[in-house]
Amino acid sequence: MAGNAGGRTSPDLSELAADSALLARSGTAERVAAILRDRITEGYFPPGSRLSEESISGALAVSRNTLREAFRLLSHERLLEHRLNKGVFVRVLAVDDLVDIYRVRLLVECAALRTLGEPPYDLTAVEAAVSTGEQAALAGDWPGCSTANIRFHQALAGLANSPRTNELMRNVLAELRLAFHVMADPRRFHEPYLTRNREIADRLADGDAVGAERMLAFYLEDSRRQLAEAYAERLTAR
To answer: pTM of the prediction?
Structure first.
């Protein structure tokens, strides 16, 4: 980690520089936004981080105008915010944001399972995310476990086979990652859900979409409650 803005350390941008290869010749703002969105989803840029135009445009080898347009797109997705005379920052979610995120997740993820139709289902992405999470836990990589968990829920929504649903959930889950940073003990938060992810995947593999949906609804409520309690504790401590 390097640098300090507003009391927060900023990430080493050497990793981000490697992403410049993904832009190829068409370094559009949309593709820059996609890279930054993925990095936010992975926890690379935590809430409250200031995003330096100079450093990031240099790391990605794009113009500042392109980067500013990408910032604008991500601001519309509620991932970034512009602070007058201070710059661009990764948003810090409020409790109301958290409640709304989980409202959307309950509607979309459960509906994706409810409308699956007849088994068997293509669970390739679901199984891959579950396995990645389990491997990350064994390695003690809890940020990696968090990312795998988000990929698991993206894969569940992806079972709807709807590009619009995929886009919606990609943005919602990127925003959700901002909430995870409130958990003081990521292992304690994420570890129990590894088992629940595996159980949901197994239910789907058995063709029991109804049972998987029921488990998911309880799962989401438990997760929402835990995060809401952590937010309340943080506010009380201030």
So the answer is: 0.78
